[in-house]
Design a protein that fits this description.
Largest sheet: 6 strands, mixed
GO molecular function: L-aspartate oxidase activity
Helix content: 25-40%
Protein name: L-aspartate oxidase
Strand content: 5-15%
Number of helices: 18
EC number: 1.4.3.16
Region (Disordered): 619-639, 728-759
Radius of gyration: 25 Å
Oligomer: single chain
Strand order of the largest sheet: 14-4-3-18-26-25
Biased composition (Acidic residues): 743-752
Length: 759
């Protein structure tokens, strides 16, 4: 008898063409894993469970031991170093550790939960297995029993299409047929035909370029998210009753459980008389497919996944740790090839101000989030997070190895997503008002109470974020002085229901000195910098790519908001960020372990580990003394810290005024000049203070923000074509065509007119 992954078994299922069974209409109801594994095997997919429970890889077998109890100096470096404790970092750590790789996770705050993932409000994309479309086009919440042909509304194809539309890429999909859930392997890849063939093989990581908007979008990244996403959610976040692999608090020896079971909201299913995962609709989604926990989904996911990672015997967390530079083996790099070997990171302890080299034979993962925090008005929390740490580290590595202005290691930085609805109160920090509010029916109104969203897009409040953000921004520009002209209105919904669905927002609004009640009054809103669609350039496996030819930096990976996979193109679809962290973080963990990879890639990973081990041993032999003085000799230079803070304040204002929602080439040019000067000052402050134990987190933060901000402004200045979140104010040469783009089609032209109308 086939094994079932849920106690609920009286559910109708449907055979697939490959002999397995597909999920039925109930979310998380039942999966026949034996048949599913056979189905994946026949189709070229690798089973997630097989990869987790079976490991004969020489890369990882020698690591099956207690990591924390080993104090040997060399062996302590037999690890993977993950920079960032958010969803992407923890997914990477858990996956690598389940394959026997020891992991050290460094995080900037004193608490491992102090990360940007914690503040995500809306939810995470899963899949709606309950919503069916009949032959007559009608929708129903069950499959019915009258023999009528029906199909799921929420498919991998529909999610890929939603991501494409939101991205600003206007061309057609390369693949128009549905794919089953499972591993998105080399045999399915559209634009990366040489993947895994050799370490220096040319690969197309940027994806296709839209001739109208200039946006590069990687359709393969979207297919990977859609095909692997549901399984990763079940693997890392769900319990047995929802078809997941986890028992709450139980770390199975068989590595089938992480001990992470997230308590997502549930509703009663009238057809089955059971409670099921609650699925909500958000902007630009074709179906309700978002699972959530009230309006604090990021908080509850982060709390549970960091706890699960901390409980794993091969994972350790080190807090108050700021990576300042990446370490690489200069013997493996050259100006003619950027496939150098990364062997660790230079790390500042915030408390002692000591600098320490953290070596890692299995490489370094950049997972410290994006750079939207470098703007004066941002939805990101105040602090070190979202100041461009991963981008800054990557750029400095590229500079050290290849020299400045070589380009390639970061891409698409101009596409900064501005969230349309942050709370607007003068002289107060912006507070995010989740997309889910508009998904639940909130209306955007001007000061006269007129709904204005449909003036800008037929989908109104549910249009892509970049369009809604520019709509709100445009309305705020119509008034002057103290009068505000953009408000969010959800007063037509039941008051008690709203307080239960959005408790964090209710608590924040009512706790102010001048309380607000969003159940009874319209709330003033304004766009704020929210998310980085670009980042450190990677391939589908998370390997950092350092040139247009597709060569990569060995032993360097990136995942989550820090990475640019091409998934988002020019604009991110709502609630993709947490799922992106799970899917691509897990892929990095498997890549590091050589799990499910071709023999060639496995040998390549193993070779990099051996080279890194040799390079680290040579480094340690040369290091006759600690890299910094003892903590007792620390003397923080408060003057330098104050100067760094002043420069950072100046930088944030500069970014908001000149590289904001609507951009102008003249202002961008001025920003590049001023940011270059700030970057040079940041480097000088670092050089003067780092080696004498005077460099605090303020200087580290400024340095990262300066590198990231300058790269962003340069990228925006170089791109004169409006697309997605990058909107350039109309110029006389706005009609000039792209010199290297594809020929534009009538269909693209018609779609872009809707997308930018009155934007």
């Amino acid at each position: 008898m086939s094994r079932l992954l849920s106690p609920i078994h009286r559910i109708a299922t449907r055979s697939t063409t490959s002999g397995g069974i597909r999920w039925s209409s109930y979310v998380g109801d039942v999966r026949c894993w034996d048949n599913l594994s056979k189905s994946y095997s026949r189709r070229g997919f690798a089973s997630f469970s097989a990869n987790l429970s079976t490991n004969t890889n020489p890369v990882t077998n020698h690591n099956r031991r207690s990591f924390r109890s080993n104090n040997n100096n060399i062996r302590s470096h037999e690890r993977l170093l993950v920079l960032g404790s958010g969803v992407a970092g923890c997914a990477t750590a858990l996956t690598a550790a389940r394959h026997g790789i020891p992991v050290t996770v460094l995080h900037a705050g004193s608490l491992k939960e102090d990360c940007n993932s914690y503040w995500a409000q809306g939810g995470i994309i899963y899949k709606n297995y309950r919503l069916w479309e009949g032959a007559n086009g009608g929708m129903m919440s069950d499959r019915g029993g009258n023999g009528e042909t029906k199909r799921l509304v929420d498919t991998t194809l529909s999610l890929v299409e939603d991501i494409r539309v939101a991205s600003g890429y206007l061309g057609k999909l390369q693949r128009g047929e549905e794919l089953e859930e499972g591993r998105y392997g080399d045999g399915l890849v559209l634009n990366n035909k040489n993947s895994g063939s050799n370490s220096n093989g040319s690969r197309n990581v940027l994806g296709k370029k839209c001739s109208t908007t200039g946006i590069h979008w990687n359709e393969d990244a979207a297919w990977k998210l859609a095909c692997e996403g549901p399984s990763r959610v079940r693997e890392l976040l769900l319990g047995k009753r929802d078809g997941g692999m986890n028992h709450d608090g139980d770390l199975s020896e068989g590595v089938t459980s992480t001990g992470c079971v997230v308590p997502f909201d549930r509703v009663k299913d009238g057809n089955l008389d059971v409670d099921v995962l609650s699925l909500c609709l958000e902007a630009s989604h074709a179906a309700p497919r978002i699972i959530h926990h009230a309006d604090c989904t990021g908080k509850v996911i982060t709390t549970h996944i960091t706890k699960a990672a901390a409980n794993h015997p091969l994972i350790e967390f080190v807090g108050d740790s700021l990576a300042t530079d990446l370490l690489f083996d200069s013997g493996n790099s050259s100006t003619s090839s950027n496939d150098g070997l990364v062997i660790g990171a230079r790390v500042l302890d915030k408390r002692s101000k000591q600098l320490t080299n953290y070596y890692a034979t299995h490489g370094v993962v950049l997972a410290s989030g994006g750079l939207a925090g470098i703007y004066q008005h941002s939805t990101n929390p105040v602090g070190f997070n979202a100041l461009g740490s991963s981008v800054g580290l990557a750029l400095r590595l590229e500079n050290d190895m290849l020299g400045r202005n070589k380009g390639g290691i970061v891409s698409d930085l101009e596409y900064i997503q501005f969230h349309p609805t942050s709370l607007y109160v003068p002289n107060e920090a912006r507070f995010l008002l989740t997309e889910a509010l508009r998904g639940e029916g909130a209306i955007l109104r001007d000061a006269d109470g007129r709904a204005f969203a449909r003036d800008y897009h037929p989908n109104g409040e549910l249009a892509p974020r970049d369009i809604v953000a520019r709509a709100v921004f445009s309305e705020t520009q119509k008034t002057s002085g103290e009068e505000h002209n953009a408000f969010l209105d959800i007063t037509h919904r039941d008051s008690d229901w709203l307080k239960g669905r959005f408790p964090s927002i209710h608590a924040h609004l009512t706790s102010r000195d001048k309380p607000m009640d969003f159940t009874k009054e319209c709330i003033p809103v304004i766009p704020a910098a929210h998310y980085t669609c670009g980042g450190v350039t990677t391939d589908l496996d998370g390997r950092v790519v350092g040139s247009k030819e597709g060569r990569w930096y060995r032993n360097l990976f990136a995942a989550g908001e820090a990475a640019r996979t091409g998934l988002h193109g020019g604009n991110r679809l709502a609630s993709t960020s947490l799922l992106e962290g799970l899917v691509f973080g897990s892929s990095v963990g498997e890549m590091v372990a050589g799990a499910g990879m071709s023999n060639y890639v496995g040998e390549e990973v193993n070779g990099a580990v051996h080279e890194a081990r040799s390079a680290i041993e040579q480094r340690l032999a040369r290091e006759r003394s600690p890299t910094s003085k003892s903590a007792s000799g620390v003397s923080n230079d408060t003057t330098a810290s104050r100067e760094a803070n002043a420069f950072l304040t100046q930088l944030k204002a500069l970014m908001w005024d000149n590289v904001g929602v609507v951009r102008d080439p003249a202002k961008l040019s001025m920003a590049v000049s001023e940011l270059t000067a700030i970057r040079d000052q940041a480097d000088l402050l670092w050089e003067e203070n780092s080696e004498c134990n005077k460099a605090g987190e303020e200087i580290v933060a400024l340095r990262d923000a300066a590198y990231a901000g300058l790269a962003l402004a340069k990228s925006a200045l170089a791109n004169r074509v409006s697309g997605g979140a990058h909107y350039v104010a109309p110029q006389e040469d706005a009609n000039e065509s792209l010199s290297d783009g594809e020929s534009s089609s009538d269909e693209e032209e018609e779609e872009v007119m809707v997308a930018v109308a009155r934007g």
